[in-house]
Write a structure and sequence with these properties.
Largest sheet: 6 strands, antiparallel, barrel
Number of strands: 12
Strand content: 15-25%
Distance between the termini: 152 Å
Radius of gyration: 52 Å
Number of helices: 4
Helix content: 40-55%
Order of helices and strands: HHEEEEEEEEEEEEHH
Structural class: alpha+beta
Shape: elongated
Strand order of the largest sheet: 1-2-5-4-3-12
């Protein structure tokens, strides 16, 4: 359609008519004169509108889904962060419980030996000094730590402090080859010197070659002059092997340490020695060995077996008597006795 004056006039007339019809329809309400026309239009164009709506709905849903995807993604991300946080909190709770249990064991050990201890956390393995078996703890001179202090945990002797910094310290572990500590056997009080052997049991030289020692015997520290570097009574380990003395000046036994040096976490540095030697009191009570029940089976012979045995004896006696009678009859018949008859008869029997 060309843009002319007539076409513009027609468009204006149509608009005026449309507004007039709308005004009449609004004022008429339910009695509007165009109500019938509206119904006819709805009946004619309703199916077309439904078809168009059905075709357009998936597109609209897709658009809505794209619009909402960002919100859903943010929600999923938030839930994932929350889940990760809960896992971290759960792991932290487990770690805190383990540390609390270890601290409780250290306090029980310190209480049994009357040691004054300061708790510390192992923060590193190895040190710049070149020791093969050392750990670094998170307390130092600012916390009152000094060189040659005894270090222990809830199981027993860990080592001794060798280097002290303002906020950290280096501990030489008891299984290091350069580590030596005086020991005392439980109950017998036999003295010796334990030396570390890395991941193998400690080698202990007993001063008494005739000392009575057996596998399972336990040892504690003997102590040092002025309690440095070792306080007395700290559990060391138990005997797992004994070498024969063979005329040597000392006797060697091998002791498995109570402490697991590869899983150290919380330790205690002894900052105050006990007033008296606790000796064996820090060692935990030995577990009671329950006797193993034994069952003795006694076999009772049956009555039939006894009768059969007697029957065999009767048969033997009967055979012997019959042989004797036969020999007497032969002798009585006037036949000269054969000097080999008795031997032959015995041989036959």
């Amino acid at each position: 359609m060309r843009d002319t004056k007539e076409s513009r006039l027609l468009l204006v007339l149509l608009i005026v008519v449309a507004f007039a019809l709308i005004t009449v329809d609004i004022r008429g309400g339910e009695n509007s004169p165009v109500q019938g026309a509206r119904r006819a239009a709805a009946a004619a164009f309703g199916p077309v509108e439904n078809g168009v709506a059905g075709a357009v709905d998936p597109v609209g849903n897709a658009i809505a889904a794209v619009r909402d995807s960002n919100t859903r993604h943010n929600r999923i991300t938030a839930l994932e962060h929350q889940n990760a946080k809960l896992k971290r909190e759960l792991g932290t709770g487990d770690a805190n419980r383990a540390k609390a249990q270890e601290l409780d064991k250290i306090l029980r050990t310190a209480g049994a030996g009357q040691y004054g201890v300061k708790g510390a956390q192992v923060v590193a393995i190895g040190a710049a000094q070149g020791f093969s078996w050392t750990v670094t703890i998170d307390i130092g001179s600012n916390d009152g730590i000094k060189r040659d202090m005894t270090v222990l945990n809830g199981d027993g002797l860990v080592g001794r402090v060798t280097t002290v910094g303002p906020s950290t310290s280096t501990v030489l572990l008891a299984n290091d080859p350069d580590f030596t500590v005086g020991t005392r056997l439980e109950k017998t009080n036999e003295l010796g010197f334990a030396t570390g052997q890395g991941d193998r049991p400690l080698s202990v030289q007993l001063l008494n070659t005739k000392a009575k020692v057996k596998v399972g015997d336990r040892m504690v520290t003997f102590g040092s002059s002025k309690d440095k570097p070792f306080v007395p009574g700290v559990p060391v380990g138990k005997v797992v092997r004994i070498d024969p003395s063979a005329g040597n000046l000392t006797r060697t036994v091998y002791v498995q340490p109570f402490v697991g040096f590869t899983k150290l976490d919380v330790v205690g540095v002894v900052v105050q020695a006990p007033r008296k030697d606790p000796r064996d009191t820090v060692l935990p009570p030995k577990p009671k060995v329950r006797p193993t029940p034994t069952v003795t089976v006694t076999v009772t012979p049956s009555a039939g077996a006894g009768q059969d045995q007697n029957t065999g004896q009767d048969q033997g006696q009967g055979n012997g008597q019959g042989q004797g009678t036969g020999q007497g009859t032969a002798d009585g018949g006037g036949v000269l006795p054969d000097p080999n008859a008795g031997q032959n008869a015995n041989a036959g029997n």
